[in-house]
Design brief:
mainly alpha, MetI-like fold, 0% strand
Length: 316
């Protein structure tokens, strides 16, 4: 009996140690990233040199006061205490432009994924038809295809149909279509949508399986059309899944790199801009952007949770 207690206690101690190590492994990089975003150094590393907000917004950016002409020439443009040359997140127009592009793409992909995901979930959960299993697995295929392969395939497909379109309809006639098929934000949306819509479909389908069909049947017995029954009964029931699918779709699109890398044009998204800059230099600005994105993700999750709680309290 005593040995059994000692064994259980040792097991709980090992389990507690595992949980502590796991939490440290998961959150320590985020904490270090956040701390270094406020460190008064030109490189993202310790030791701590004091608190600064220059990497978020530098009011001295572009205001150069030379203290040592030789040092200034060697180090480039620097300001008082070297702060004038620091480019904060909100000083960097290219960075803000890439964030804007990421938002545009993520919003478009999220909207398309919710519409297609809802209709696809209704199709597979409500209907049985010949070849439905094959079609269902075809829908799941983008999830197992690497993003790099998906991006290259979409780019190759777009390039392969340009020639035949020009030959059939004429160069000037298909010029607007050809411009959409070239690398750019439009084809990035299509590339991300190809697999993110599948994720949204699975989330919505899981909720739809719990829907009591008798409610729709009762509404139609009372004179409502099928469309009216779906929009007034089924869609409100699916609202938690729609919110979850929307948040997941937005985040997956915003941080996507593999597919976007091969489809982006001259207007990069945030991950692509980061990748191009990291090859040449690393500054605490990257840490500052990470802090902004982490806070944005937390706020997005809290907003989704708040909407769900409001819906639940209103229903109660």
């Amino acid at each position: 009996m005593r040995r059994s207690r000692i064994g259980r206690r040792a097991l709980w101690l090992l389990f507690g140690l595992y949980v502590v190590v796991f939490i440290i492994y998961l959150y320590a990089p985020l904490i270090v990233t956040g701390v270094l975003a406020f460190n008064n150094r030109d490189i993202p590393s310790f030791p701590w040199k004091g608190l600064t907000l220059d990497w978020f917004y530098n009011p001295n950016y572009g205001k150069v006061e030379v203290e040592d002409e030789d040092e200034t020439e060697a180090a480039g443009q620097i300001g008082i205490g070297r702060a004038g040359g620091r480019v904060g997140v909100f000083n960097d127009q290219d960075l803000l432009g890439s964030i804007k592009n990421s938002f545009y793409v993520a919003i478009a992909v999220t909207a398309l994924s919710l519409v297609v995901g809802t209709t696809t979930a209704l199709l597979f959960e409500r209907n049985r038809f010949k070849g439905d299993t094959l079609l269902y697995f075809a829908m799941l295929a983008p999830l197992v295809i690497p993003g790099v392969i998906l991006g290259v395939s979409i780019l190759a497909f777009g390039n392969s149909i340009v020639g035949p379109l020009r030959a059939i309809f004429g160069r000037e006639t298909v010029k607007p279509i050809v411009s959409l098929l070239r690398p750019g934000l439009f084809i990035v949306v299509l590339g991300q949508f190809a697999w993110i819509a599948t994720m949204a479909t699975l989330i919505i389908s899981a909720r739809l399986r719990r829907f009591p069909m008798v409610q729709e049947d009762a509404a139609m017995d009372l004179g409502a059309s099928r469309f009216k029954a779906i929009t007034s009964i089924t869609i409100p029931f699916l609202r938690p899944a729609l919110i979850s699918a929307g948040v997941v779709s937005f985040l997956l699109s915003f941080e996507n790199f593999g597919t976007t890398l091969f489809l982006i044009g001259s207007d990069p998204t945030l991950p692509i801009l980061f990748f191009s800059r990291l090859r040449f230099e690393i500054t605490p600005q990257i840490n500052a952007v990470s802090v902004v994105l982490i806070l944005g993700t937390i706020l997005l999750g809290m907003a989704a949770l708040g909407l769900e709680q409001l819906r639940s309290s209103g229903r109660g």
